[in-house]
Write a structure and sequence with these properties.
The structure is a homodimer. By secondary structure, chain A is α/β, with parallel strands linked by helices. Chain A is 39% helix and 16% strand. The first copy, chain A, folds into 2 domains: 135 residues, Aspartate Aminotransferase, domain 1 (Alpha-Beta Complex), CATH 3.90.1150; 239 residues, Aspartate Aminotransferase, domain 2 (3-Layer(aba) Sandwich). Chain A has a 7-stranded mixed beta sheet, with helices on both faces. The longest helix of chain A has 24 residues.
């Protein structure tokens, strides 16, 4: 009789933990701790969005909904994309998903056979890579170059990394954790290259609206043809402070609508029905909130920059987008150990750079979507360790 | 320049549609149609559960939550499992998931490598099989025997279907669509066999409480040792009428807690935070609702049985569990075509047997979780086609 401990796939046992989760484990809500480790604003979801969810609950929106998303939400996504990007996109190009994360999983389920590889512009939020791994694919990091804390992409390096098994390029711009933002010229060149090579672009656009030097980040969806192999990922989490809601959407060629609907059905059926109604309100009435959030984030970025710029061990350039300070610490060999020390000694929670791949080692990520008071206090606490 | 239509994995393009969705496509909410095709009660979620969600929204529960689920919900699941099954299970055996469907996907991601096979007691809800396919696994249906409309499992047939590549047995008891319920004796034998063979049991227990001849269906979790290779799937959808909420849970060996947390992180992060708080209320205060629902369903089953028993073309035995009438129709060669005809001519939506695998051909599934008035009218409309 075999009574060994349960065994799961080797791939799954070897799947690394999110090292962000590892630092925060058992410390969420610890009194006195200033938690800047997650990619999450400290603001509750705006009331008008919560009210829309409550109204949908009162209205009995508690039943199954269509696999591609409820029609009012798909229509509102269409309006939103038209307003932001100036493109009139067909309704059948949108699939509502249970978060940006879930959109990434569905997309890689659609694309990645065992043995395929995916180019991943790095350092980057680890979850996209782990998703590739779960599907049996190979991750090929394409590492951004850093100079004085500013990040740039070597296009030739990117193009050279592809081979005949390359199924997709995953590109998160504005990027988490770096804040790197693809230029319009880079975008155009990458699209031409991907077209020629028949490689899918997975554009993780979840920070597209959290930008400080223009209205929105350059996006493939602005210039792509309807049939281009482009999957653009979006999420309600960041721009509308809805991390706990689990709602996002995919914009893809219409030819994928049916396959994505099937994958939605076989993964989760679809996001929570009344949450989708709240999504309608967020997109329809949320522009003032997003604008205000960007202004608050800009002040917070500047506050953090003031301190980081003065700390002698820190190499950092403030980002033009997203809500992270990602900075190098001179002499720090092990970012995970250092982050644990900051947590335990300084009472400040930051994410270790190693959480974002090997190319992130030597850096720390601090989410500045917190109150100025908390950020000022955090900077004071960090000074002895960084200065 | 390659501008072919987008191509996804062959596996995904070949993935069948849910034929339940196929029949219902474009007809949801069609005036006059009596829709009995989905596995969904026509009752809105009870008010006390909706109130709990609204209170959580008011309380600012709009942020990320832990990957295994919020602690109050895991604690309440423990209470519930203790109350129903008389077992005191450790907290680290529970993982909260975004629906029963999502629990199945996470579990097969954990277990199925390409080339592995999974035994599936059939006919059964198709989604579990498609999930296996997405992961590159092989489905081995083990077909229940039907006599006079009653279903039974030939254990020897089940045991003989396994080979060295068999990773798991998927068993949905009470079963959708058949209503078949595993006996205590069968359960005991299957567990001994699976233990000896080192084969995982995935027990889909979502209908465990919708039972008409006893308090709950026999379940592996009642007798399993903590280390047994058992993954028990549960859902809030059926017993608490929460289909649109996307909330469920897994009970597994504690050794899997960590891997399931990782998979939650990399699939969806976790279910909607305030929905989890509503789940606490459902489990804590929901027993009277579940009892009442079972009584209503019993009357509805009896009403449907009265008619079906009289129809000359129908072969049917009323089930002791779940909320489906699954009946053979004499002379019906193509259940999908027949279901489309019933939809278009009779204005009654039922699911074709073929939706539940080849072994379901020749049958129709009718969900009787609708008002007695709707069911009576549906039976009248169906008479010319079935009598």
């Amino acid at each position: 009789m075999s009574r060994m401990p349960a065994q799961v796939r080797d791939l799954i046992m070897e799947l690394p933990d999110s090292k962000i989760r590892e630092v925060s484990l058992n410390s969420i809500g610890k009194p006195g701790l200033i938690a800047l480790w997650f990619g999450e604003s400290d603001e509750e979801t705006p009331e008008f969005i919560r009210d829309a969810a409550k109204a949908a609950l009162d209205g009995g929106e508690t039943f199954y909904s269509p696999n591609s998303g409820i029609e009012p939400l798909r229509a509102e996504i269409r309006n939103y994309m038209g307003r932001v990007y100036g493109r009139d996109l067909d309704l059948n190009r949108f699939t509502v998903t249970a978060s940006g994360m879930n959109a990434i999983m569905l997309s890689f389920q659609a694309l990645v056979d065992p043995g395929d590889n995916v180019l991943v512009v790095s350092p980057v939020w680890p979850n996209c890579s782990e998703t590739i791994r779960i599907m049996g694919g190979e991750i090929r990091p394409v590492v951004l170059d850093e100079r004085d804390g500013a990040w740039s992409l070597d296009l030739q390096k990117l193009f050279d990394a592809a081979d005949e098994k390359t199924k997709a390029l995953f590109i998160n711009s504005p990027g988490n954790p770096t804040g790197w933002m693809m230029s319009e010229g880079e975008r155009d060149e990458i699209l031409l290259w991907a077209r020629k090579r028949g490689i899918w672009i997975m554009a993780d656009d979840v920070y597209a609206r959290l930008v400080y030097d223009r209205a929105h980040a350059p996006a493939f969806i602005e210039i792509a043809e309807p049939e281009d192999r482009l999957i653009a990922i979006n999420s309600f989490s960041k721009s509308w402070s809805m991390t706990g809601w689990r709602l996002g959407w995919i914009t893809a060629p219409a030819a994928l609508e049916h396959d994505l609907a099937k994958l939605n059905e076989y993964n989760i059926a679809g996001p929570t029905t009344f949450v989708q109604h709240a999504g309608v309100a967020a997109l329809r009435d949320g522009d003032p909130y997003v604008d205000g959030l960007v202004e608050r984030l800009r002040r917070r970025r500047d506050l953090v920059t003031q301190s980081l710029g003065r700390f002698s061990r820190v190499r950092y350039t403030p980002p033009d987008a997203a809500f992270y300070a990602f900075f190098a610490v001179e002499g720090m060999a092990d970012s995970l150990k250092f982050a644990l020390r900051l947590r335990d000694e300084a009472g400040v929670g930051v994410a270790p750079g190693i959480a974002f791949g090997q190319s992130g080692e030597g850096y720390l990520r601090l989410c500045f979507a917190s109150s100025e008071r908390a950020l000022s206090e955090a900077m004071e606490r960090l000074r002895p360790y960084l200065d």
